[in-house]
Amino acid sequence: MPVTYDCVVPWGRSFDEYVRMFGLTEHDLTRKILGCGDGPASFNKTMRERGNSVVSIDPIYQFSAAQIRERIDATYQQVMEQTRQNADKFLWTTIPSLEALGRIRMSAMLEFLDDYETGTAEGRYRFEELPSLSFADSAFDLALCSHFLFLYSDNLSEEFHREAIAEMLRVAREVRIFPILDLNANLSRYVEPMIAYFSACGFQVKILDVDYEFQRGGNKMMKLQGYV
Q1: Which run of H or E residues covers position 6?
Q2: Domain extent at residue 179
């Protein structure tokens, strides 16, 4: 059966997953990073512990830690059940089972919640949302977008994708998006139009293999940057 969600659901990934999903090198991790749609991921917390710079933005950051925890609890079983019913769309190697998936995701989300109030006070978690950001042009070296654009092709329009990517390219010198599949592990119908549009606008657009695959075939990211 197809995977469907009425809206974007909070589902946190870990620092190690971010590194693998986006092919982040040690040099990349020292750059000024913006995480777009980070939700309850633990990437920001671990980056701070390492002494690195990252700002995460998400509309969920308008809420308190208790409210976010309520939202996680309300959607957790729905996500797990949809994953169970569509287990054939996933590669159960690094994450060996549905139970392991639940533990890994909840661990990342609890780490996020533990850091959330401190990170908000420090300006590391900011209530903003694509496709309109408050940051200055080229404020960041690298913008990352995890499990939002392309994944929610049934929820977000082609125009939204175009505007969101353009805004990330405005505030960051380089943009990486993962995955390029939709919720049902099919290549998003917006990938080719985005390649064509931004290439015509003068940007380098590449589809690169990465050392991460949970959705079957989901081992590629889109990388965009200006020509130098």
Answers
A1: none
A2: 15-226
